[in-house]
Request: fold
Amino acid sequence: MRYASPYTPGAGAMPRYLAGRESMLEEADKVLEAVAMGYPQKPVIYYGLRGVGKTVLLNAVEEKAEELDLLYSHIEIAEKRSFIVQIANASKKIIHRMSVIESVKDLGHKALGILQAFQVTYNPEEQTFTAGIVEPSMYVSSGVLSDDLTEMFVAMGRMAAKARRAVCFFIDEIQYMKTNELEALINALHRVNQLRLPITIYGAGLPKILKIFGEVKSYSERLFQYIQVAELSDQAAEEAIVKPAAELGVTCEEGAVREIKEWSKGYPFFIQELCNTIWERTEGSVIRQADVERAVPIFLEELDKGFFKIRYDRCTKKEHDFLFAMVRCGDLPCTISNVANILHKKVSSISPTRAQLISKGIIYSTGYGEIDFTVPQFDRYLKRINPELTIESIGENGEE
Reply:
């Protein structure tokens, strides 16, 4: 093509045209405007599979926070990083921005005093972080993470209220938060909500966060607004395919659009990846079905080498067998009992493997006794690398 690709296949990269999320962004506008005006709103949690655009949506809402002049910070949780360190650093920057306002300087001293009292320690043997207030502190000294984070949020919230500002934290990959960190965050948000203080969060994570939040705090179902981010509708998928190209004078034949939708199944990441592959290998101002068919093998190869393989390589051989057994079940989601039957094992003996795969974010529970992949089309990938779906622990004759 004459022009650079208008498609953005990178992880979390904002597409040229954000299709199918209009209602969510309109709702976010209302929520952020209300918070900015001093009316507390439920914190929002987006959940969905990999590749549906949760991070993109989070970034789009962040742009709206910028437009409304909210004080905000973006945090991406990592498995081996301390969320408390991240939230403390983000809070410090926000408090510093407010501390120049004369009317809130006294409250700013207290908020910064609480932050300075935070101590985070790292255990290299267990690879874990612990955090809390270290004594002595002229402000607080409970040493209980949940209480101390709440104290910090309340101090920051009162400062924001007096300064007539609002604070919003954008937290991505929220499923990686440690249980004690999540409990502390929920307690802190619950308290600032009770006190009508202008602090809220927008979070995003895999579907398993619904269960995690409920297990950590039973009232979390009432405290948060949970919004599912799913694959695009047929119309939205077509817009995501056609509109970026049209802006550069390129049209897509009906057959080409149909073929792209068939291979992407409406998942935004796959649409961007496949359309980018087609764009880089097509000449002229019309994208035809033949262009798509030529690009598909390259598209799949790129996915297999990166997007899928990274996740597959994180699994052990025993976990690989579990995954292949899931595909053997046929329709997904499948039952854990069906997987056990295919592996010739008892449900109790494979439950630890199931738990490990859920912890790694490879599968998730869709209902009682049912599981599915967190990555769209992961079953297709497993069939490509193991067409016979051979399970090593069973052997060729179907015996252990």
